[in-house]
Amino acid sequence: MVITDFLERNARLYGSETALVEINPSDARDQAKSWRETSLIETNIGAPYRREMNWRRFDKCANRMANLLLSRGVERGTKVGILMMNCLEWLPVYFGVLKAGCIAVPFNFRYSCDEIAYCLDLADVEILVFGQEFISRLEHIPQTMDRLRFRFFVGSAADKPAFAEHCDRLMSFCSVDAPPVSLREDDYAAIYFSSGTTGFPKAILHRHSALVASCRTEQNHHGQTRDDVFLCIPPLYHTGAKMHWFGSLLSGSKAVLLRGVKPEWIFRAISEEKCTIVWLLVPWAQDILIDLESGKLKKEDYMLDQWRLMHIGAQPVPASLVARWKKCFPHHQYDTNYGLSESLGPGCVHLGVENTHKVGAIGVPGYGWETRILDENGRDVVPGQVGELAVKGPGVMLCYYKNPEATAEVLHGDWLWTGDMAQQDEDGFIYLVDRKKDVIISGGENLYPVQIEDFIRQNEKVKDVAVIGLPDDRLGEIAAAIIELKEGVSCTQEEIDRFCLDLPRYKRPRRIFFEDVPRNPTGKIEKPVLRERHAASRLVSRESMK
Questions:
Q1: Is the CB of residue 512 less than 8 Å from the CB of residue 480?
Q2: Euclidean distance between CA atoms 492 and 512, whole angstroms
Q3: What is d(CA 186, CA 388) in angstroms, rounded to the nearest whole number?
Q4: Taking Cα atoms as reference points, which of 52, 82, 193 lies closest to residue 521?
Q5: Sign of the C-alpha dihedral, residues 434, 436, 442, 444?
Q6: pLDDT surpassing 60 at residue 456
Q7: Confidence at residue 545, expressed as pLDDT on a 0 to 100 scale
Q8: How confident is the model at residue 31 (pLDDT cuts 50, 70, 90)?
Q9: pLDDT at site 401
Q10: In CATH, which of 3.10.150.10, 3.90.180.10, 3.10.20.70, 2.30.38.10 is domain 308-435?
């Protein structure tokens, strides 16, 4: 079985039922109106506030896309890039690429011109499907664009750039029947790019079998049925969002793509679309709690009783945040998900809704997965000792495309060494300590930024925090805390210093900066950005904090 089989099954069995809804609050023409009162237009992104698509149309649009590609003479394994914001067209384009026997290559919509050009070359992309938001960026890489065989534009005809063909118009002439392409589980399916938090991205190659396995893992963890409605906010180019949506694909249930992260928008979508499952990133959950606790957002103004599960992934989750969430939503199931693009997104480790007594852990091996914690020589450490987390399962990548050296660094037989430092308790639950490359070595002591960040987040004035290592003449490195305060709150370095007195002396931050904490679209703190920004802050440690 391949991933496109599930779409075809849903079109056959549930054809007239809603598969996807797109909501774009920022495009509302009348904020006072219900989203359900606006017209439902199933083509052309932009003006419509709410659009929807049923399973039959979803499958037909994917078939049209596949047949368009085949009409241009693509071969099995041709790489097709997708550079689009979350929208109703995104998943039909993705599945159309797969149905044509091509390899889908989703692009981060925040990529700069240079990053787009770099990734197009790295993945040997021959065809690019892109949205109107990216015209100006693509115009700045003419030589790279000229190298592509075809460029298909998704958007209104009036906005079509001269260097591309109009995808909707071309697809309208293509058959809605399934293309004559036979797919196999071991066929290459997709190339995803690493998050790039440690430099330029690497291209991660996966087979169809890995996509199917992620469907089964997701549904096993969260029990999606046809009665569920999944609210998807993170970007679809990332494995996390798409693989959580795979639970909806497997169960034949509705999903809502919300283009916005304001707490009131999230609650309104949950209320009006009757969402039952919501996947949040830590900053969005924090924003919701802040608005609820301040009274800016009121649960009684929305219909939220059907909401059964909130889960978080993509980064360490502070136990204090989950405790606050459970106080606001005592009847919610909660889960923490851990994964990498190299393991095809979330699920290789997960907490499990039945294990909220272990909040703070990332959990236990996911459905179909195995884990180990290793020392620098690849030997298993004893419980309680910190080592590198390794995972083994059906979603492990085939390789870093065109990068055998990097592949050899992380793939050891069937095991993927994640680069995340972790430890396991006596019950087998795994706790993430930090990224191996983020560990700070200060005066011979290993400092794990995540532990310091979790402590500082307990301060009621702190909205977000990142801890990085800065060079120091005496200790080699010192810990510096970049602190983002809650709106309307003032705080001094002396206050933070006093608060951190409850930390062991060697763990206390030696430098404090008050500024916004930059995060990428998947919620990960962009620590290289912070290190570069504060590279000049080379000061000898303060005597009081020796």
A1: yes
A2: 9
A3: 29
A4: 193
A5: positive
A6: yes
A7: 36
A8: very low
A9: 96
A10: 2.30.38.10
Residues 507, 447: Cα–Cα separation, whole Å: 6
> Which two structure tokens, joined as six digits, stand for 362?
């990332």
The pLDDT tens digits of the residues spanning 479-528 come to 899 999 998 899 999 999 999 998 878 789 999 999 999 887 666 788 87
Which of 420, 416, 359, 358 is CA-nearest to residue 388?
A: 420
SS3 103: strand
Q: How many residues does the chain have?
A: 546
Cα–Cα distance for residue pair 520/197, rounded to 1 Å: 8
* DSSP assignment string, 31-72: TTS-GGGS----SSSSS-SEEEEEHHHHHHHHHHHHHHHHHT
Tell me if 481 sits within 8 A of 513, measured CB to CB. Answer: yes
Residues contacting 184, CB < 8 A, separation 6+? 2, 208
Dist CA 12 CA 80 (whole Å): 27
Sign of the four-CA dihedral 335, 336, 339, 340: positive
Residue type, 543: E
Place of tokens 């404090």: 512
How far apart are alpha carbons 536 and 226 in whole angstroms? Answer: 55
Tell me if the domain spanning 3-8+41-230+237-255 has CATH number 3.40.50.980.
yes
Span between the terminal Cα atoms of the chain, in Å? 60
33-65: pLDDT as tens digits? 444 443 333 433 344 489 999 999 999 999 999
Q: What angle do CA 506, 508, 510 make, to 5 degrees?
A: 105
Identify the helix (H) or strand (E) that includes residue 165.
strand 165-166
Q: Six-digit token pair at 121?
A: 């070359």
Assign 3-class secondary structure to 355-384: CHHHECECEEECCCCEEEEECCCCCECCCC
Structure tokens at 239: 């494995």
Can you list the positions of beta strands (E) in 168-305?
188-193, 203-207, 229-232, 254-258, 277-280
Domain residue extents for the chain:
3-8+41-230+237-255, 308-435, 439-545
What is the torsional sign of CA 28, 85, 236, 64?
Answer: positive
| Number of CB atoms found within 10 A of residue 476's CB | 13
